[in-house]
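Supplementary Methods, section 5.1.

A reviewer requested that the exact input to the structure prediction be made available. We therefore reproduce it here, unchanged from the version used in the analyses.
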Amino acid sequence: MKKLFVMALVLSMGLVFTFTSCGGKKIGGNVQGETFKNESWVDDNTYRLAAAGVANSKLKNKVARRESAKRAAILNAQYQVLEKFKGSKIEGAAGMSDFENTGIAIAQEIQGVVKGGSVMSATYDEEDNCEIIYEVKAKGLKNKVAHADWQ
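The structure derived from this sequence is encoded token-by-token as follows.
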């Protein structure tokens, strides 16, 4: 009987912990003043996506926290764009046997274009976390990504 009571207590505490630990405020999807998909092609030359960044918890100054969060959001956006473009390019190059080398070559080819992207808007929550809209532009970008003819 005592084992059954202890087991029931452990299970109930586990359920309480599970439901309360995941209940925090989430960031992302809250760019103010815009209705926007997380990622999309605007036209054949422009790709946009939303990305979030979290402020460095060691910083106390509000301006420094916001700048830290914005830098994190930009790095997150650049990573997401690279992954999206790399995936598109690899899908278009079906039959490539050396996936890892292909991935490295793709990242090197488009890295400059992605890093040259710009922040269209940035919003912050009460904890100074940042969400941005990041835009990458290049002439014929969609075609280049699809056909892998970066020059």
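The chain has one domain: 28-147. These observations are discussed further in the main text.
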